[in-house]
Amino acid sequence: MRKIVIMLGIFTVLNACTNSGKLKYPETAKDDTIDVYFGVEVPDPYRWLEDDTSDATSEWIIAQNEVTFDYLSQIPFRSRLKDRLTELTDYEKIGIPFKKNGKYYFFKNDGLQNQSVLFVKESLDGETELLLDPNTFSEDGTIALTDYSFSNDGKYLAYSISKSGSDWNEIFVMDLSSRQLTDDHILWTKFSDVSWHGDGFYYSSYDAPIEGKEYSHKNENHKIYYHKIGDKQSNDKLIYSNPQYPKRFYSASVDDDERFMFVYESGELKGNNLFVKDLNNKNAPFIQLTDNMEFSYYPIEIIGDKLFLITNYGAPRYKIMTTNILTPEIDNWTDFISETESVLAGAQVIGDKLILTYEQDASQHAYIYNLEGQKEFEVQLPTLGSVSFSGKKDDKETFFMFTSFTFPSTIYKYDIDTNESEVYIAPQLAFNPDDYTTEQLFFPSKDGTKIPMFLTYKNGLKKDGKNPVLLYGYGGFNASLNPRFSTTRIPFLENGGIYVTVNLRGGGEYGEEWHIAGTKMNKQNVFDDFIAAAEFLIKEKYSNKNLIAINGASNGGLLVGAVVNQRPDLFKVAVADVGVMDMLRYHEFTIGWNWASDYGTSADSKEMFDYLYAYSPLHNIKNDETPYPAVLITTADHDDRVVPAHSFKYAAALQAANTGDAPKLIRIESNAGHGAGKPISKILDEYADMYAFIMFNLSMEMK
Predict the structure, then answer these.
(1) pLDDT confidence of 21, banded at 50, 70, 90?
(2) Residues ≥6 apart with Cβ < 8 Å to 434
(3) How far is residue 265's CA from residue 506's CA, in Å, rounded to a whole number?
(4) What is the mean pLDDT of residues 442-447?
(5) Can you tell me the distance from the alpha carbon of 661 to that of 567, in angstroms, rounded to the nearest whole number?
(6) Strand 664-669 with 630-636, pairing
(7) Does the pLDDT value for residue 481 go beyond 80?
(8) What are phi and psi of 107, to 5 degrees?
C-alpha cells in the first residue's frame, strides 16, 4: 500500500556556509509518501528524487554540486594533489597481448589518454598498427569501448560501446581488411557477449526502454538474438527467450570451432543454469545441462568430444569436471581435478596444458596441469598479488600479467613447457615500489572469525597510533579483493597514510561458504568484520579513531553507509561511492532485482523486511546530536546499475539530520555511470576530490 504523495515545499539554494562556519546545505523538499510493509509504516519523504529526469531533481543536483565543489575548491592542497595524481598516472600502460587469426593484439594508453587504444602486429617483433581508437568516439572521452570480439575467419571485429558510463551498449562491426565500419549497428544491448558463428553473431538485449526512463526503469525479459552481417537489427532472429522468468539474464557463447553454442541463464539465485545446442544440426534443440541456479557452471574448453567445466556444484571452493559433449547432462559429469583448500578462481587451456589460478588467503597462485589432470608445476610469481593469462589451446606461447599493491601491472612472456618466464613489458613511472611495504594480517571479527587484510605503507612506519588510515572494503556477491596496483593511492601513502584492504565475508576469498556468511540474514557479519578491522588497527597502535577514513563503492558504498550509522564514533571520514542506500526499494530499479540473492528483498517476508530495515543506510541515520564523521557521497547521472536516487535520498536525509558539524556532501558527476569506461580526465578529478576530502578531514598535510 502507498499513500498519496503531496509535495510540501521546494528547496532553495543557500550559501555554502553560515557565519559560524558550519556548512549550510540546500533545503530539500519533503513529501508525505509512506510505504507499508507487513503493517509497518515507513516514510519516504524524498521519493521525488527518484525521478532522475525531472526539473526539480536537476535543480537539486545543481544546488548540491555548488555547495560540494565550493567546499572542495577551498582545500589548500587540492590542486597540488591533482597535479601529483596526474604526474603519477602519466606513464605508458600496455595490456596483455592476445593472439587471433595469426595476429597479435594489445591495448595501450600513452599515459593520459581518456581511453586505451587497440593495436595490432603481424608478429611479436613486427610493426605496430593502430586498429581502433576509442578516443575518437567522443571529444570528452565519455564514450568507451566495453567489449570486442573477432570473427573466427578473421574478417570482422565486432565491438560494443557505452555512452557516459551507462550499462546500455551499442554494437558496431569493422571490416578488418578495409578498416571501415559496416552498416551493422545494434542498439539496446546490456550484459551481453558478442559470440560469432558463421557470417554473424549472437548477442543479448532488452526491448527499447520508455523514452526518458532509460536509466531507472526495471530491465526485464532479456533475449538472445542472432545478427547476420549486412542485415538490419529489425531482421535479427530471436534465438532464445523465456518470458516465464522476466527477471533472468540470458547470454550465449560459441566454442572456437563453432560446433556448439552454450546459453547461460542467471539472475535469480547465486549461480546459473547451462544449456547447449549442436550448431552442426540445424534442428537440434537446446539441451538443459543443469537445473539448480544455486551453483555456477562454466565451460572451459572442448577438446575432441571432451568438455571441461569449472563449477562449485558439490564443491564450495570450485573444481574441474568433464563430460562427453554428446551426452552433456550433469548426471554424466565426472570429477577431473578435485576441490582443494584454496579457491579455484580461474581455468583455461593454453598450449595443450590446463592453467589453474587459485586464491590462497586472497592472493592468487597459478599452476600448470596436463590434460590428464596431473599437476606439473607452479608458476613462479614475484610476490603476493594477482595474475591473469592470455592464450588459446593451440598457442605455442603465452603471456601473463602480474600486479600487487606496490607492483604496477607487468607483462611476462611465459614458456609453458619449461615453466620459465621473462619480463616482456614493465611500466616506468614516477614511483619507487621499494620505498613501501605490504603486509597481510589476520584479526578476529565480533564472532571470532579470522578475517584477512592487507596493509600498505611507507617504510619506517611507527606503530604509535598516529598514522592516518584509509580502510577499503566490499564484502558481497562472491567478489574477491585481490592485491592490485593503483596510482590513485600513492599520494596518500607518500604523505604517511596506511592503505588497508579488508577481505570481508560476503566476498569470494574462501569460496561459497565465505560468500554465504555475508548474505541475507548474515549481512551484519560484513559490517561487524569492517568495524573489527578498525578496532584491531587501533588496538595494535597503527592508528586511532580520529585518523581513520573508510571507503567503498557500490555494495561497498552500502557497507560505508551501514557502519557509519552503527559506529559513527569509530571513523573520522567516510566516502561512499555509488552506494546501495535504500535497502527497501533497491529491487525496483533497472537490474536491482538481480541482487536479491545476496540481500533478500523487503517483500520476501516480515523477517527479511525487519532485517533490511534495521541496517538500511537511508533508514538508520541518527538524529540525536550524535556526531557523524565527515561524509562524502559520490554518484553519477548515468549510473543505471545503482541508480543515483540511492545517493540522492541518503544525502538529503543525512543533511537534514542532527549529526554534528562535520561536512555531509554529495558529489554528482555528469555524463558518467557506475564507473566502467570512465575517462582518465574524470577519474583524476574524482580522485583528487576524494583524497583531498579525506586528507583534509584527517588533518593531513601534503608534502
Answers:
(1) low
(2) none
(3) 22
(4) 98
(5) 17
(6) parallel
(7) yes
(8) -100, 145
- Nearest Cα to Cα of residue 669 among 644, 694, 696, 642: 644
At 25, list the grid cell.
546545505
- CA pseudo-torsion sign 561, 563, 569, 573: negative
pLDDT score for 638:
85
Catalytic residue IDs: 554, 674
> Which of the two residues, 429 and 262, has the higher pLDDT score?
262
Mapping DSSP onto H, E and C, the string for 81-134 reads HHHHHHHHHCCCEECCCEEECCEEEEEEECCCCCCCEEEEECCCCCCCEEEECH
- 3-state secondary structure at position 417: coil
Q: Indicate the average pLDDT of the chain.
A: 94
Q: What's the average model confidence in pLDDT over 425-451?
A: 96
For the cut 80, the answer to whether the pLDDT of residue 671 exceeds it is yes
Q: How far apart are CA 221 and CA 238, in angstroms?
A: 12
SS3 state of residue 8:
coil
DSSP element (H, E) containing 409: strand 407-415
C-alpha cell at 484: 592490485
**What is the rounded CA–CA span in Å between residue 664 and residue 627?**
11
pTM above 0.90, yes or no: yes
Would you place residue 287 in the very low, low, confident or very high pLDDT band (cuts 50, 70, 90)?
very high
89 φ/ψ sector (left φ>0, alpha ψ -120 to 50, else beta): alpha
Query: Counting beta carbons within 10 angstroms of the beta carbon of residue 530, is it exposed (0 to 12), middle (13 to 18) or buried (19 or more)?
Result: buried
